[in-house]
């Protein structure tokens, strides 16, 4: 019988595809099993005010060669759609969940973009930190974000929702250097929401974490460019 021959590039492609699938399946299983078991290593006192207990916590930092005040103001003005990686990840989510692409809009900056879609500001230390929050159902194809008043946020428990609170802060590390920090916490409001979000997080968290990293790289690039070329 004739032997089936596959050339080297195709073999490498198939091997890479199988290996990537195996890694992803392993990640999904590990993330699902470890859900709500990982705790934040560092605590943000301002964030603790609104979500002291949580099921998911993710924290990212990046060092920036620019003063803290400049880095923070740059972060608030950064346009998420300016990153090709973030745009691609948003389109991927729409494809996977069957969502509709939002209508194009002019760049507004990070803070204005988020408040325009339903995020509310829970707290602010001017020039240093903001805390944003919302209630949503992220597993929906076209999720709707509901701003919750700061005084009501911690007690909000309407069933089948996910509460999300996140911070954006910048700390000075020297006269012309700083460190940007973001922490995101998630808490579900009912057993049904917990199970649905647990699956959603296990399957889609790689893309969500990549968005955080891509956004921080963009903030770093823009802040450092503004500092060296004001």
Give the topology.
Layout: H1 8-33, H2 45-50, E1 56-64, H3 68-77, H4 84-97, H5 110-116, E2 120-125, E3 129-136, H6 150-153, E4 162-174, E5 177-188, H7 191-228
Antiparallel strand pairs: 1-5, 2-3, 3-4, 4-5
Helix pairs in contact: 1-7, 3-7, 4-7
Give structural attributes.
alpha+beta; 230 residues
The CATH architecture of the largest domain can be named as: 2-Layer Sandwich
Mean pLDDT: 87
End-to-end span in angstroms? 71 Å
* Count of discrete domains: 2
Strand content: 15-25%
Q: Which CATH top level class of the largest domain fits?
A: Alpha Beta
- Strand order, biggest sheet? 1-5-4-3-2
Poorly predicted regions: none
The portion of residues assigned to helices is 40-55%
- Helices, by number, come to 7
Rg over CA atoms, rounded to whole Å, is: 20 Å
Q: Helix/strand/pairing class, anyone?
A: alpha+beta
Describe the structure.
By secondary structure, the protein is α+β, with helices and mostly antiparallel strands. It has two domains: 1-33, no CATH class; 39-228, Alpha-D-Glucose-1,6-Bisphosphate, Chain A, domain 4 (2-Layer Sandwich). The protein has helices at residues 8-33, 45-50, 68-77, 84-97, 110-116, 150-153, 191-228; strands spanning 56-64, 120-125, 129-136, 162-174, 177-188. A five-stranded antiparallel sheet has the order 1-5-4-3-2. Strand 2 and strand 3 (129-136) form a beta hairpin. Helix 1 (8-33) packs across helix 7 (191-228), helix 3 (68-77) crosses helix 7 and helix 4 packs antiparallel against helix 7. The longest helix has 38 residues, at 191-228. The radius of gyration is 20 Å and the shape is globular. The termini are far apart.
């Amino acid at each position: 019988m004739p032997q089936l021959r596959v050339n080297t590039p195709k073999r490498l492609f198939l091997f890479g595809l199988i290996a990537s699938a195996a890694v992803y399946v392993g990640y999904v299983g590990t993330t699902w099993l470890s859900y709500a078991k990982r705790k934040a290593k560092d605590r943000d006192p301002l964030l603790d005010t609104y979500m002291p207990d949580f099921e998911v916590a993710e924290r990212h930092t990046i060092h920036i060669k620019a003063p803290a005040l400049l880095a923070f103001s740059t972060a608030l003005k950064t346009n998420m759609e300016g990153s090709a990686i973030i745009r691609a990840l948003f389109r991927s989510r729409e494809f996977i969940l069957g969502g509709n692409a939002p209508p194009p809009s002019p760049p507004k900056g990070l803070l204005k973009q988020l408040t325009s879609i339903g995020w509310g500001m829970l707290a602010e230390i001017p020039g240093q930190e903001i805390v944003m929050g919302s209630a949503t159902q992220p597993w929906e194809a076209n999720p709707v974000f509901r701003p919750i008043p700061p005084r009501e946020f911690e007690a909000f428990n309407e069933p089948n929702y996910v509460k999300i609170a996140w911070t954006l802060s910048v700390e000075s590390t020297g006269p012309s250097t700083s460190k940007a920090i973001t922490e995101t916490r998630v808490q579900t409001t009912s057993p049904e929401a917990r199970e649905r979000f647990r699956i959603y997080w296990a399957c889609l968290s790689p893309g969500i974490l990549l968005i955080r990293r891509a956004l921080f790289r963009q903030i770093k690039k823009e802040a450092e460019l503004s500092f060296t070329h004001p």
